[in-house]
Design a protein that fits this description.
The complex is a heterodimer of chains A (508) and B (438). Chain A contains 18 helices and eleven strands. Chain A has 508 residues and is an alpha/beta fold. The longest helix of chain A has 22 residues. With 438 residues, chain B is an alpha+beta fold. Classes of the chains: A alpha/beta (508), B alpha+beta (438). The interface between A and B is large, with 80 and 66 residues.
Chain lengths: 508, 438
Amino acid sequence: MIALALVLAATADAGLKPGLAAHAPEPVAARAFAATTPLQLLTLPSKTPIVSIRLVFKAGSVDDPKGKEGLTALTTRLILEGGTEKLTGAQLREALFPMAGQIGGDTDKDLTAFAGRVHQEKLDAFLALFSDVLLHPRFDPKELERLRDSALNTVQVRLRQENDEELGKVSLDALLYAGHPYRHAVVGTAQGLKAITLDDVKAQAAKLFSQDRAVLGIAGPVDEALSAKVVAAFQGLPAKGAPVTELPKASGIHGQSVIVQRDTLSTAGSFGFTWNLRRGDPDFFAVALALSYLGEHRQQHGVLFDELREKRGLNYGTYSYPEHFRQEGGSMLPMVNSLRRQQDMTVWLRPVEPQNGAFATRGATYFVNALLTQPMPKDRFETARGFLIGATRLREQKDQRRLGQAIDDLLSGTPGFYEQFRAALEKLTPEQVQAAAKKVLSIDRLNYVFVTKDADALKAAITSAGPNPISYPSPKPKDVLDLDPALASQPLPITSVTVLPASGVMEQ
Amino acid sequence: MVLPVLALCLAAAPPAASAFPFPATVTKLPNGLTVARVPASSPGLAAYYSVVRTGSRNEVEAGLTGFAHFFEHVMFKGTKAWPEGSRGNLLGSLGFSENAYTSDDVTVYHVSGPTSSLEKLIELEADRFLNLDFSEETFQTEAKAVLGEYHKNAASPGLKIEETLNAAAFAKHTYRHTTLGFYEDIKAMPTRYAYSKEFFKRWYTPDNVIVFVVGDFDDAKVMEWMQKYYGPWKGTAAKVVIPQESAVKGKDVKLEWDKPTLPRAYQAWITPAASLTAKDAAVAEVLGEYLVGETSPTFKSLVLEQQLVEHLGADSSPHRDPALFTLAATLKAEKDRDAVNAALTAAVKELQAGKVDAARVEAIRSHSRYALLMGLETPDQIADHLAYMAGVLGSPQAAATFQQQLSQVEPKDLVAYAKKHLTAARRNTLAFSAGAAK
């Protein structure tokens, strides 16, 4: 199997048309999280009988040793599901079940969150279980094998064979972060997962899940006594773990394209580049508004959604993001505690019919460019602004989300992030937003990843000078048809294309 | 005149308000539209859910499957007062988030956002239900988006599995097709503009819709706006004959996926519809957890101990008509198929023989009570739960009724249900096999 990074280094195509940019990539530095005190406590009282507890560690897939990719996520799952010294995994499930107690978790690149929820009537029993899970994990070898199998199936089956959109996103990460700890999927690589031993897992837990890396949040019917009880429950965590992994610079590559080939009915796209923009930067709110205007996640009012789906019927939607985006489950909300020290701007082109792949790509690129070069209509601007003012309030309704957000605010050094965002939104003008976007965004920095069946045809289309015209099965309004030639002819900044089989993605 | 209707008088439902922690105040407008309001602590925010009691179940005509779902898309295409795009833009500018979904039985439109703009939201929602207006070109363009959704979903085996299992179990009933519809029908959708007008007239009528307003709002004002904006809405839902299954003899079918994937085993039975007066659907929900839930002996054996199965679960969602109760196992290897099927069969047979663990049934009921409380944290979650159950059962109080039914499920109910409905003769099985080795 072929590692993506190696292929990229070896196959820059000769003879492609010149891209829009000829300048060298500018490496992008990581920005460290704010310092925190050991087991730093945050409390958010609310009028609910449900107690929410959230422990977030500065630990993630960046801490996976080379050749053991997936170790942190697998360690997290084994802690969560594998039982405690006193209880097997099955007994733990039985103990939690009648009270519907929830113990869950998530590993991302830089952070790992453990979340617990229970009705206050059952807090004492639940807290004993939750703290036992973290303090005295069973490290059952049989459970390790079960969870390793599951992770391998996620990579080899669910990712490579059953989810073109996620496959595209993972492959874009691999492209943008070649040679960087962000390169591999959080779940791991096939070879990395196979190499992990039980001793690796035990060592990783000791190294990462310590008080000096942890922030503890409590929400619900919180008072001093309840806080003290919860803090005491987790005081048994090791005081000190390994130093937080320092991140190298991301390469800042641009103009690269990867086509992941698999037998599929459609063509999915993920485009983007790494950038320096972070929460707390003077232009962050303005650029976030610009990209919401361009393509708010799963909402109708974004330019990309309107132009590509509503007017042209190309796909289910196209969206753009100022920070790396993960959706929370089946909701439309961004995950909390997926905050990253390296960031990227991305565009998500949902699957289009293969014959429209190049047109849709040129079209998406055209509208990214138009964000920078054409006036932002006042009404659309107001829609994006109003939406964000409302949407940020909807993101703060659940206690686990409020805790996660407060912890993200702490780590990014942006206390009251959403309040500040709303205040900034009230004052921004279209001109300010566009000016801020121009400082950080240009289409010649984009990289393009696709998942499709006929890689040769797509490669030929996206590397041609164009146009890649479209023919519609139904009549279209004149304004749409008038604009289409510009979309079809939009130059793409692609200077190199690599074709990979899906079967090789995240192999090692 | 607005006619206030006491919740308990709306249907022959048993008193149930105490089983659900968020009681609804219900009013039926003279035109038949039911409006349920549920106060909840969410300062300045509200959820607004419109449930159309029409889903893919209603698609009785050949060649026109998938229309309920397609129409869900069309409902975002605007009116003369608020043409395509302008409605979404206005809602966005006011801070609302919206979406919709379609199931076998219902289509649900949901919006969440600031109470301060609730009147404008009600005006816009009423406008599209009363005055939807879309061109043939718009309709045809949206048909391509729906086809794209089918292609997206077809990337994983779940859709094909559902299609195959439904086709095995149902010969006549419209549950034979999935909510997305048959692929050929989806491809033909651009030619069905005239039918789309008929579909709107047929099902988007006040007597076929229940609106839920949940969160922080002024009840009197909400009702004033509902009457003002929805009052002129006229019409009565069509009556169509949903073909019923004359025989429920099970079938054994196979499906081979032409790409690498994990094999799966399904056992499915057609089981009774949900009802306000009978607790079959509640029994089915408890039964699914009892047979294959995470604390079941079968789960412990197949998933944790023998590790033959990666995922094990049951689908027992309440339906308007007799629908599938399904046990589903994702296998790690094809060679274990017989052993897994045998374990599932043994669990059912044990129950049929009268062996039931009463402590586990009590634990499941306890779990249901606490899980419900924990799952109702936001107006959206409350409205979502209320809306689906109301759509299926036809009463805004259906969630409370169902919760009460759950609390009344006894061990003997599981035995009786398994004996009557989960028989070998009625069982459908699907053997889903992987293609090339992974």
